[in-house]
Amino acid sequence: CWSLLAASSGGQGGVVIALIFALIINIGAYWFSDRIALGMTKSQHISEQDDPELYSIVREQARLAGLPMPKVYEIHTDSPNAFATGRSPKNAAVAVTTGIRRILSREELSAVLPHEMAHVGNRDTLIMAVVATIAGAISMLAMIAQFSAIFGGLLGGREGRDNISAC
């Protein structure tokens, strides 16, 4: 019931503030998901002059997938990995680690990158950013309810008890 949730999380005002905060986070995740992912992995932008081979592989896979050329990034780590990010095909980025470059041949890397390009084409990165934000908002509401129950009493007085029976 709305009244039970509102009472346990600082009143209806607390719920409204939490939902507005979640909306702001969701919009931020939508607009900045690519920068967040690339920043967290310390990715470095690669130009065609920096790595013509990698750039040509990505360009060819984008062409075959019918997608615009994404930005290309490299992550300096021994872990073999590759990922795609971005809110749309026009704002996409593909990142590969130096570890995967060391162990895969050009042909093998050309088989891995179409999988990443499919994520771009299907907007999987956008969907996952939104899902993660919603999960975070639910977690935040649960934490507010928990702290409210511990430090402020779950329902607070007679009015709160009457609201339970209305559920």
UniProtKB/TrEMBL annotation:
It is a multi-pass membrane protein. Belongs to the peptidase M48 family. Gene3D superfamilies: Metalloproteases ('zincins'), catalytic domain. The chain crosses the membrane at residues 12-32, 126-151. GO terms for cellular component: plasma membrane. Binds 1 zinc ion per subunit. GO terms for biological process: proteolysis. Signal peptide: none annotated. This is Protease HtpX homolog. It is found in: Cell membrane.
